[in-house]
Amino acid sequence: MNQSDVRRRPLEVELALPVRTYDIDFAGVVSNIVYIRWLEDLRLTLLEEHLPLKEQWEQDVVPVLASTQIEYRRPIRLFDAPVGRIWMSEAGRVKWTVRAEILLDGQPAAIASQTGAFVSLSTLRPIALPEELAAKFRQQRGRE
Q1: Contact 91, 134 (CB under 8 A)
Q2: pTM attached to this predicted model
């Protein structure tokens, strides 16, 4: 990945997404609900690499989702080998947005975005984006 790709896709991670027999619906394709699970796996992988959940928990901080949007473009079936990518596209003082793509043979099978915030675990009230994550985002966007 070159430097301009990093600026467009800060904190990007990639993950192979196995298709299980129980992921298939009556039409023989991956059920819509599986994409939600895959997005969760991708988002947790991003956090594990850039701000591990255990560290967040110890600091009384946890991420929460406010919205998920998915556009399905191509069906994925049993024995396919999709790959997911997710990156942080926006990082405000409190709110953040991640974008993701599920690729099949290098072509988008689905594209998604999720918006959320961090909250205090003890109060469940929104808090500022953890500085460690905000700094990494700014650095990879080329603002520092």
Answers
A1: yes
A2: 0.90
Task: Tell me the residue range of the domain where 62 lies.
Answer: 3-141
- How far is residue 140's CA from residue 57's CA, in Å, rounded to a whole number? 25
10 near 59, Cβ under 8 Å?
no
Residue 88 is encoded by which pair of tokens? 């942080």
Task: Kindly report the CATH number assigned to the domain that includes residue 108.
Answer: 3.10.129.10
What ranges in 14-73 are assigned the alpha helix state H? Answer: 32-50, 53-58
Contacts of 48 (CB under 8 A, 6+ apart): none
Read off the pLDDT of residues 72-130 as tens digits, 9 standing for 90 and up: 999 999 999 999 999 999 999 999 999 999 999 999 999 999 999 999 999 999 999 99
**Which tokens in the block code for residue 4?**
């301009």
Write the pLDDT tens digit of every residue in 31-41.
999 999 999 99
Q: How far is CA 95 from CA 59, 63, 65, 118, 127, in A?
A: 18, 10, 10, 8, 9
